[in-house]
Amino acid sequence: MSNENLNQEMMSEKEMLSELWRIQQRDEKIHRIFTILGIAASVLVIVAVLIILPSFMHVLGNANQLMLNANQVVEQAMGTLKDAETAADTMNQAAGELNTLLSENNAAAAGTLETISKLDIDALNQSINELSQIVGPLARMMSAFQQ
Description:
mainly alpha
């Protein structure tokens, strides 16, 4: 029996070695598969980066140009705003000067209107008629001398 026990034990060791060998082979296959998958994923990432990177750089270049253009527009707007501010100040100054001119001339215009309203139109018309009566004969007499 001891021989049989030894045989069974040997068998069992053979089976164990065989099982270990099979497990090691399976683990090695799984390791190879994961290695291949890792390499494939790395290649895919590299290819994707190589395809996307030029487009991304182009987009960044366009964004940079857009920002430069926006800065130029802002600078032009600031200049225009400054010019408009200067024009508004000039208009305010001109309006002040016009107001001063009007207020200074208002008194003179009021005096002129008052003088005109005090004129006696009837007396003026009578004086013009009298002058006409005097100048008429003088004009005839002067025309006789001229011939």
